[in-house]
Structure to design on (722 residues):
């Protein structure tokens, strides 16, 4: 019997080499690639995300868990081709125009991938027009925007407007986050949601995909 | 109510009272009386809270979001949202700030006349009157930067500056405060004497807001200020009166990005420009600027790490003022706390925070990962640390340690290669060096670190004694300075994460 638990534990605790070894072993022993994702990787990242939310784990723990998961996915991904595995959804993520902060955005990306999403990362200093272009190109269910400064968060309503002007606003859900962001700001600018930590953001994205 | 439409507000325990139009913002009257507004009055932090002793102040939405039920029941309200419609008595503690000035002796060439050195900090400002023939400090004035009503941190103020009315208020309030401090200092002048020159320093945003330059370029990437140049003006043009009105005042030039003339002055005061072997420095105040110098080259960078240490994001954080725990020691396995001004502790300031975490690490109450399994660490009285406080400190000290690492590596060096590391700035001055090493904030051995006090003010003073005001020296330093943008450094994320964890016990040499 393939040992999925060994993979799950290794990813949760960020033990990349152990996770890779356990992944290879599980595949040799006949584990279905989709099971590795759904029963080992995703639960591992959810566990880390919950600990992060409670303050029991922090940025370094998230990063090493994400790196372990990434290494496992590199092995598993080619084996998913030709199966009927489908990501939970697609998210386009970026830090808004004028802002360079990306650690928060990267943590959200890790939690989204850890929840089974395919994530297109536009990087930092992303113009509203770039977000619009990404929606046209990738047809994501969700756009996730990050800003860390009280000065750059104003790019968020500009991006929402750009989506409206391009006739794309009703084709995506827009979620936002970052230190100066609040629930009331989110409502004010017509976003679909705000969460204050990366795990909650991924959970929100899952809910929004479910309701679409 | 007193006159129709007015309410009387009584401040206890001072007993002072004033009247104000009913329904107008209480906050308008409180900054000058010592209440701070860290988030600029947006209702997002708890820094402005006051307690209603008698009378009634309705609960606002912010109150219910930011304050606990027991606090609300006890009469606490967020003063930034308060609009009294009836007479009130509120409890108000004067936060008399401990502001760092400077009395370091230095070598100088005697000159005629008297001069003024001004350090415009984001939070605190210091001005000194100098006898240029003797380098004697005839007087010192300190004050809170009145722009603080628009926000404790720079970005809040830069955001507020999008409103032309706010920009004007920020410029006028800081100019008035500085002019007032100078006017009081002039009372120490021998009769008939005048101020002949002034030297002003501050970070780039302070420089722009004081001089009237647009800070919008500092609001977003690429954060390139339009005005790095030094500016010379007559005292009268700056609102200086009496014996100071004829002074030739020079606001020193900036170094790049947010790194301003205050860091240039630190470089002058610490002689980091002299190139005597690799050396470095940090000015840890509201912001955190870093300097590394080697072989004639100087690298500078800024981190926004200040606010965590100055208490803004800490649950019971406060600045170093009466009631703040500013020192903690371990006494036979138990923590012992010193409170500024003696008496009941109300909160904890940056230096106390560093000490508390060092104690927690030593006791094993706090993991090297930063986890606080017990959820809270009692310090003294009602003051305690919670898990999120430790995470905030990890973010701040990780940024500083990572920044130092990036600059040092950019120079092709390692931390241990620096002959001396100068620690300047208010927070830096109060830090216990051993504890700051213990938590990994300063990755240097004890012998490397030099406490440099308010080196920005010292550097400004030194320029008063240079015939050209230091213009040639500043020009030379600027030609050798490169401003490094830390966020765009490769590996920043991994390095930052690495520096967030605390060293294991016994990991750092004392």
């Amino acid at each position: 019997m393939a040992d999925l638990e060994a993979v799950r534990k290794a990813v949760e605790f960020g033990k990349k080499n152990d996770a890779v070894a356990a992944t290879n072993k599980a595949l040799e022993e006949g584990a279905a690639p989709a099971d590795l994702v759904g029963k080992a990787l995703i639960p591992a990242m959810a566990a880390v995300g919950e600990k992060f939310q409670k303050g029991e784990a922090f940025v370094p723990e998230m990063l090493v868990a994400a790196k372990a998961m990434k290494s496992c996915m590199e092995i598993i991904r080619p084996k998913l081709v030709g199966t009927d595995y489908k990501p939970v959804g697609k998210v386009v993520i970026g830090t808004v125009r004028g802002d360079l902060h990306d650690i928060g955005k990267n943590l959200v990306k890790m939690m989204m991938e850890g929840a089974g999403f395919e994530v297109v990362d536009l990087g930092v200093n992303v113009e509203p027009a770039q977000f619009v272009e990404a929606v046209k190109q990738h047809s994501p269910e969700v756009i996730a925007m990050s800003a860390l400064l009280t000065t750059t968060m104003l790019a968020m309503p500009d991006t929402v407007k750009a989506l409206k002007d391009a006739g794309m606003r009703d084709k995506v859900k827009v979620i936002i986050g970052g230190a100066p962001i609040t629930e009331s700001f989110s409502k004010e600018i017509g976003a679909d949601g705000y969460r204050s930590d990366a795990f909650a953001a991924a959970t929100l994205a899952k809910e929004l995909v479910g309701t679409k | 109510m007193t006159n129709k439409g007015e309410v009387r507000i009584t401040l206890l325990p001072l007993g002072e009272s004033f009247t104000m139009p009913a329904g107008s913002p209480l906050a308008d009257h409180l900054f000058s009386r010592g209440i701070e507004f860290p988030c600029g009055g947006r209702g997002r932090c708890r820094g402005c809270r006051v307690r209603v002793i008698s009378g009634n102040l309705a609960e606002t939405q912010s109150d219910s979001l930011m304050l606990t039920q027991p606090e609300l029941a006890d009469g606490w309200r967020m003063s930034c949202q308060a609009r009294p419609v009836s007479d009130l008595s509120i409890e108000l503690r004067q936060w008399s700030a401990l502001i760092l000035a400077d009395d370091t002796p230095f070598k100088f060439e005697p000159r005629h006349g008297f001069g003024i050195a001004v350090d415009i900090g984001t939070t605190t400002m210091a001005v000194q009157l100098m006898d240029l023939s003797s380098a004697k400090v005839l007087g010192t004035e300190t004050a809170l930067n009145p722009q603080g009503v628009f926000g404790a941190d720079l970005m809040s103020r830069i955001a507020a500056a999008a409103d032309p009315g706010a920009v004007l208020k920020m410029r006028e309030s800081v100019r008035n405060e500085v002019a007032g401090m100078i006017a009081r200092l002039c009372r120490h002048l021998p009769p008939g004497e005048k101020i002949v020159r002034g030297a002003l320093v501050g970070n780039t945003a302070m420089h722009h807001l004081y001089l009237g330059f647009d800070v919008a370029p500092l609001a977003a990437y690429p954060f390139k200020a339009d005005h790095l140049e030094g500016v010379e003006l007559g005292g009268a043009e700056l609102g200086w009166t009496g014996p100071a009105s004829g002074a030739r005042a020079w606001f020193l030039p900036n170094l790049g990005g947010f790194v301003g003339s205050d860091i240039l002055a630190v470089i002058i005061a610490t002689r980091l420009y002299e190139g005597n072997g690799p050396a470095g420095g940090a000015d840890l105040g509201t912001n955190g600027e870093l300097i590394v110098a080697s072989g004639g080259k100087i690298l500078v960078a800024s981190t926004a790490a200040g606010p965590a240490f100055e208490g803004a994001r800490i649950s019971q954080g406060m600045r170093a003022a009466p009631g703040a725990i500013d020192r903690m020691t371990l006494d036979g396995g138990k923590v012992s706390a010193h409170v500024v001004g003696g008496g009941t502790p109300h909160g904890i300031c940056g230096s106390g925070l560093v000490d508390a975490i060092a104690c927690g690490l030593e006791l094993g109450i706090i993991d090297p990962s930063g986890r606080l399994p017990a959820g809270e660490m009692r310090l003294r009285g009602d003051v305690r640390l919670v898990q999120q406080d430790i995470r905030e400190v990890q973010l701040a000290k990780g940024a500083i340690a990572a920044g130092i690492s990036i600059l040092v590596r950019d120079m092709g060096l390692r931390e241990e290669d620096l002959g001396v590391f100068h620690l300047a700035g208010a927070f830096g001055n109060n830090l216990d060096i051993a504890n700051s090493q213990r938590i990994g904030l300063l990755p240097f051995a004890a012998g490397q670190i030099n406490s440099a006090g308010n080196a920005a003010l010292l550097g400004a003073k030194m320029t008063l004694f240079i015939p050209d005001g230091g213009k040639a020296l500043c020009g030379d330093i600027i030609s050798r300075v490169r401003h490094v943008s830390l966020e765009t450094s490769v590996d920043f994320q991994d390095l930052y994460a690495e520096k967030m964890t605390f060293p294991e016990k016994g990991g750092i040499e004392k």
Summary: Residues 89-211 of chain A form a domain with the Rossmann fold fold (CATH 3.40.50.280).
